[in-house]
Q: What sequence folds into this?
């Protein structure tokens, strides 16, 4: 099975990109039992940029998706990179191997070809912002709310409208209600998808975001809730001065999100 983020089969004419993890602006720091390290499961802007911006005309980028989503700010910037690559002549082909939820749902919408399988699912919803440990005042929170509204109406809705068969109101309702589409429902409600009758064998999709969604299907929520009975997590130490520099300041991270929104508008 592919890793959470892996580039395979690189040739002069194509690259295969597997997005099997959460989509983030910058890799989150995780405790591995000995030290803090960047997450090995996150898909971030740096890795994505290095691949896509190096591609030129007459090349094909195949994107294989099995992701619970992530940062809409990061995904919108990635979409802009894909649009610029397409303007250079790069062909983008997406495959939903299992799940394309939330931010991951944008990739098949902007692809030149989009392929799904009998077990594929796609989820769309209103953009979310997790404040984590950030401290923000009322003005900053209002600004964040305005930015979320802006990215929904200025980026998400236009992208979905370009491929949906739904009326404007039904699309808005689907976004507001956090709608999970099966393969059959994807074909009924969106244009430009090719359905392959067989099921795609893919690793179980795990995501930190499943617990944040309100309608997560049982199959995915059970994966998120699984904790080995024979394992007791070791306490995670508070970062000391020697490694505190490795833990991102959440307020600065959110400012980067806001900046990426302004820079990541569709061209």
A:
């Amino acid at each position: 099975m592919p890793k959470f983020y892996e580039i395979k089969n690189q040739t002069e004419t194509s690259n295969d990109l597997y997005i099997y993890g959460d989509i983030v602006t910058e890799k989150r720091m995780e405790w591995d039992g000995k030290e803090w390290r960047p997450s090995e499961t996150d898909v971030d802007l740096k890795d994505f940029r290095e691949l896509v911006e190096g591609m030129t005309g007459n090349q094909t980028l195949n994107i294989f998706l099995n992701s619970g989503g992530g940062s809409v700010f990061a995904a919108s910037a990635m979409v802009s990179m894909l649009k610029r690559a397409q303007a250079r002549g790069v062909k983008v082909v997406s495959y939903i191997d299992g799940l394309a939820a939330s931010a991951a749902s944008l990739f098949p919408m902007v692809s030149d070809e989009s392929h799904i399988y009998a077990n594929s699912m796609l989820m769309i919803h209103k953009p979310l912002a997790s404040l984590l440990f950030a401290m923000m005042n009322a003005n900053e929170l209002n600004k964040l709310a305005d930015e979320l509204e802006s990215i929904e109406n200025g980026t998400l809705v236009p992208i979905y409208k370009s491929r949906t068969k739904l009326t404007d109101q039904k699309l808005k309702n689907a976004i507001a209600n956090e709608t999970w589409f099966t393969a059959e429902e994807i074909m009924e409600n969106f244009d430009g998808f090719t359905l392959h009758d067989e099921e795609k064998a893919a690793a179980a999709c795990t995501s930190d975001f499943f617990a944040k969604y309100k309608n997560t299907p049982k199959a995915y929520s059970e994966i998120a809730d699984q904790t080995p009975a024979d394992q007791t997590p070791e306490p995670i130490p508070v970062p000391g001065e020697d490694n505190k520099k490795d833990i991102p300041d959440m307020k600065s991270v959110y400012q980067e999100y806001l900046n990426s929104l302004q820079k990541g508008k569709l061209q």
User: Anything to note?
Assistant: The radius of gyration is 19 Å. The chain is about 35% helix and 20% strand.
